[in-house]
Model the fold of this input.
Amino acid sequence: MFLMIMLLFSCLKQHYASIEIVDDVKITGDSSFTIRAKVTNDGGSKIDYNGVCLSSVDSIPTIYDILIIDSSRNLNFLVEFTGLELSKKYYARPFVVNKKGISYGEVKSIEYDLSSNGGEVKGNYNCESLNGITSFYSGMNANGASWGVSGNGYSGSCWVAPEPNNYGELGTAIGKHYVQFNRDFEKQGYIEFWVNTYKAGYFNLIPRIKLNGVEIGSATMIGGQQSSSYWMKVRSPIIQAGNNTIIIWLSGDYYVLKIDEIEFFEY
Done:
């Protein structure tokens, strides 16, 4: 009987203070999001600290997992997690600590995948519609030559990098090749497109993305195959709202570089 009373008291003690997540999770970057939480009851004791714990393994995270503490001790607070992975499920759980112990709020599951956040297709480019848009390379000889249109695309024809030297065949790329275009985003979003960088015995190259002259990171593979004998589908990092100059660039020697079916998403 004494043991049962002690266990009951211990469980009740964990609920003297209470806390909850009060807003939807908001993506703030390519690998980060924010969570807002609120201490709804301090249990009659001064708050020592509060925050949010996170795990991609344990569906009920604790303070022994990834931990962000709100140093301000505000009852209504915002924390940010960074360095996260796309297409991975995370579990977030707010907590508060005072002299009576640790109290946890309800767990919120987060599928950190851009397409799960209401991404809506807002337009697309194929190689025909991209004709006349800037498409250059910087490498050996003839810097600034335009990409051409080739057959054997992912869907019909596609864009192919130009011949960079006097002995290579069309698309036998040396140096840094890129496709550049302007696009208005009413809301933040991303682009998805198909890429094939053929070189016998090698994997497809991963494109890098520049936004308004600043590199924002590499694309992420989301479909197709890694082998350069096949097409691979990729997704860009987050693109912020506004009028943006977007550059897709690839760098590698003696690859045949192709891009096809660019789609624009906003959410």
In short: The two ends are 57 Å apart (CA to CA). Confidence is low (pLDDT under 50) at residues 1-14, 165-171. The first strand starts at residue 18 and ends at 21. DSSP finds two helices and 22 strands in the chain.
